[in-house]
Amino acid sequence: MQRAAAILRCFTKTEPELSVTAIGELLGLHKSTVSRLLATLKQEGLVEQVSETGKYRLGLTLVTLAGIVLENIDLRQVAHPYLQALAEKTQETVNIVILDGDECVNIDGVTSPRPIKYIGRMGRRTPTYCTAAGKVLLAYLAPDQQRDALPNNLIQFTENTIVTRQHLLQSLVQVREQGYAVVHEELQPGVSSVAAPVCDHSQSVCAAVTISGPTYRIGADEVLSFLQPLQETAHGISAQLGCVL
Question: Is 139 helix (H, G, I), strand (E, B) or coil?
Answer without folding.
Answer: helix
